[in-house]
Specification:
ROK, 5-stranded mixed sheet, Nucleotidyltransferase, domain 5, globular, alpha/beta, 2 domains, 318 residues
């Protein structure tokens, strides 16, 4: 257990909080101050194919790094943004891409590891949304959808000026809206989900199926497809067009349901820039057709790779 000397500070003190960003490829941690400044950080690869305790061991290693900071004893709470589904009521996580964690009691285990500090849990899409509303491209917007488009597709909502995580911390999970009723099966058990068409691995696979081939370095990632699309390769362009239309359909459905005025898109696939955003904005005009959705704008996320940590910190202070 990573206990701190003396009593654990109150959550309401202006000291730092502990933030954890847990995904299928990495587990990151930081001490974050009240202004969003990162005071200390650590990172470990996620042993995603290992058993539950091995994955927890990577979390413990990150926390041990942070506990070595002289600021650790001032940290009053812990926020976790995790790949999902999560259950914030029960404090459990079942990340699709970490099969060893099924209904894993993450909140209780982290509470023990951090000397009894209070722990808040949200999904990674909700965490990114909290970060963007606090410090990023959704700042000043009362009604927003924020998306993470990477190895999966997640999201979160701001409604009426407040983060809307929903009862279990999963509200806004746009990646598992079905936009192709006859589409391919998704890992979630559904069919034709936004994630199944727009996530990086599926985007790259579609480009390969269309005739695109990696260069001499063998890089078959979505980033490599983006470079090829920027150079005009037809199959790469078609893969991004398909992903953009899936995202546009999901964004428009959300706008028609809850009346958002901005969609903020982040994650690795969004790093393609206008290769993604140009067809996304064009497709949105085809789907967001009701009068109250026509003014919807789509913008890149602003908090970058620290979005998960900043959002977890915001959850800890909520």
């Amino acid at each position: 257990m990573l206990t701190a000397p003396g009593p654990v500070p109150s959550v309401t003190t202006p000291g730092p909080v502990v933030a954890l960003d847990i995904g299928g490829t990495k587990i990151a941690g930081a001490l974050v101050d009240a202004a969003g400044g990162i005071l200390a950080r650590s990172r470990r690869p996620t042993p995603a194919r290992e058993d539950a305790e091995t994955v927890l061991g990577a979390v413990e290693a990150v926390l041990a790094d942070l506990a070595a900071s002289p600021l650790w004893s001032a940290a009053g709470a812990v926020g976790i943004g995790s790949a999902g589904p999560v259950d914030a009521v029960r404090g459990t996580v079942s990340p699709v891409n970490v099969p060893g964690w099924r209904d894993f009691p993450l909140v209780e285990r982290v509470r023990r590891l951090t000397g009894g500090r209070p722990v808040s849990l949200v999904g990674d899409g909700v965490a990114m949304t909290a970060a963007e509303h606090w410090l990023g491209a959704a700042r000043g917007h009362d009604n927003a959808l924020c998306l993470v488009v990477s190895t999966g597709v997640g999201g979160g909502l701001v409604l009426g000026g407040r983060l809307h995580p929903g009862p279990t911390g999963n509200a806004g999970h746009i990646g598992h809206l079905s936009v192709d009723l006859a589409g391919d099966p998704c890992a979630c058990g559904g069919r034709g989900c936004v994630e199944r068409l727009a996530a990086g691995p599926h985007l790259a696979r579609h480009a390969l199926d269309g005739g695109w081939r990696p260069g001499p370095d063998g890089d078959a990632s979505a980033a490599a497809v983006a470079r090829a699309a920027g150079a005009g390769h037809p199959a790469a362009l078609a893969a991004f067009e398909r992903a953009a239309r899936a995202l546009a359909a999901g964004i428009a459905a959300t706008a028609h349901l809850v009346e958002i005025d901005v969609a903020v898109v982040g994650g690795g696939v969004a790093g393609a820039g206008e290769v993604l955003f140009a067809p996304l904005r064009r497709a949105l005009a085809d789907y967001a057709t009701l009068s109250f959705a026509r003014g919807l704008t789509v913008v890149p996320a602003a908090t970058g790779t620290d979005a998960g940590l900043l959002g977890a910190a915001a959850a800890a202070r909520a």
